[in-house]
Amino acid sequence: xxxxxxxxxxxxISMMLLGTLLAGLISLxxxxxxxxxxxxxxxSRIHNIxxxxxxxxxxxxxxxxxxxxxxxxxxxxxxxxxCHYTIDRITPKVVLATGDLxxxxxxxAIGSQQYESEWRHYRDILREFDITSKTVWLxxxxxxxNFNVISVKSKxxxxxxxxxxxxxxxxxxxxxxxxxxxxxxxxGVDACLEPGPRxxxxxxxxxDEPEVIEINNLIKEIERTGSNYTIWFGHFPTSCIxxxxxxxxxxxxxxxxxxxxxxxxxxxxxGGLVPQMYTMQKGGYLELELGDWKDNRMYRLMAIDHGLxxxxxxxxxxxxxxxxxNPKSALFFNPLKESTESMLQSSHIRVLAFSxxxxxxxxxxxxxxxxxxxxxxxxxxxxxxxxxxxxxxxxQDIEVYVKDIxxxxxxEKTSFSLDGSKVAFGLLPRLALMSNVSCxxxxxxxxxxxVYILPLLVMKYFHTAISxxxxxxxxxxxxxxxxxxxxxxxxxxxDRIFWPMVLYPLYLIFGPWSIGYIVEDYIxxxxxxxxxxxxxxxxxxxxxxxxxxxxxxxxxxxxxxxINTVSTRYSxxxxxxxxxxxxxxxxxxxxxxxxxxxxQVIMAYMFWLAYGTLAFILGPLRTWSLVLAAGVYxxxxxxxxxxxxxxxxxxxxxxxxxxxxxxxxxxxxxxxSAEKVAKAN
Length: 681
Description:
Number of helices: 19
Distance between the termini: 70 Å
Strand order of the largest sheet: 4-5-7-9-11-10
Oligomer: single chain
Helix content: 40-55%
Radius of gyration: 32 Å
Largest sheet: 6 strands, mixed
Number of strands: 25
Shape: elongated
């Protein structure tokens, strides 16, 4: 029988585990919908799409406005322009303001608290342009609107007094708009933490059981009123909403058979990494994250035209604004809620066009055919007849060109399909919107702990086994990897260094990280797995990300430095080296530790700005780790010879020690010669 090596078995097991993880990830972010009755449901929603100005509604979304009294006054100025020119020209039936209405950051941009003056700016702008008489303004809280707010009844919860909906709807709510015989429902999901801590531990939202019950009641109300379409909106993406109740946000939205889309903000396009963060959730609805107003000045135009949901994201100040509603983009077609038959049997292409001046030209062409002019029907609607059967197979490209009387022009391109041909969503958008960020943060934290602690414990076990004669002593001579394994082995024999470096990260899993004023004047306790404050428990989420950052910026680099420092100290004592070092050599030797230490000092300072002096003093995560780092580094530099007794006995054979000594003696001779040459010059 063929002998199978341990390496091969290990590789096979690793491949199996990796394959399982990848399969789980692919299953998680797959956009394949599970409802097998899609065709039956779509067939009941076939509409006669022609050239009439009916069965049509359009509305806007704006998110992450971040009105600030300290930064970027143009946010406020251009928000005024949006409330004036954009709303006057587009005349939306509804505007969804999906959270982070104010910035709530202190002047140093690290601390956080509610500023009433920021809320006054928000309220006064809406009043100045008489927004509530022009449209239905539906605003909802974001995490910034909830920084340092103990509850919705707190005097610091300015959303209640200064927003449009806050007084009547402090949390989740529903509004309905009726146009003709069609009822459109808009359901706002408030997943803000209660209590709402200061930043940074206020990044992920939670639906508790009372809020789950309230949303279920809203779904029942939708059914009772005979609503035709539902637009769900909130601040947090579903990937950033935990649930301490019986149902999660995705299952709740899935329960609504008329739910077309969930629109949100919060992620700010991940700093531009994912500018178009869209996906189709398995529950049969679109999820669309909108880029922020704060830095990117984005807003979204959406429309439901004869049952087809369409949208386009627009940068403020760019005109004309163009939205093709029939045929709709193949990427966003939802077979569970929409019908290709409606498009296939339609008689007209339909386009919504808006500009600061009167529209002069609206043209369309399909698959590089000649341009066709559209005629104006009413308001922003332009149409032209077409033979849909001509394009029934496969994906087709379509372009729309719009020009106003002052020469502003815009061309929009997309692909449509009348036979259900699919276009795939990008990988990064699916990861951002279909995953669970809390699970990702937890996985990163636990993985960093395992990667860090396991080698230390394994080497400690081997040392113990070799001491007991259970394992033959290995030889670690040769390449760089073996050299570092040997250095790690030496560190594991020095208990006064080994145990602090093992026990501290284990403490991060179970022990409190800090005690301080977490919300307003309420003292709380922060753990990796959650926060206790004012009798409430906030489950861990961003705390895991914080712990992961601590591991990769402090614990792991510090341990690498200590491994090398302890090994150097061992060589000094073994070879009786007492040579003085130059200032340059001392700087080079201590620079890595200084860099790691300074980074931790900066992070501790930022934690102090965020949570105050008490949290800084009673802070094992940040402040006490500085004491630990300084203590173990000083100890490593001044270890006595007796600490290396076990290392001398077991870590090296006599030949290895002799070889090491010869190498170091040669290095010292070369350095001595170099010094003589330098003095002679």
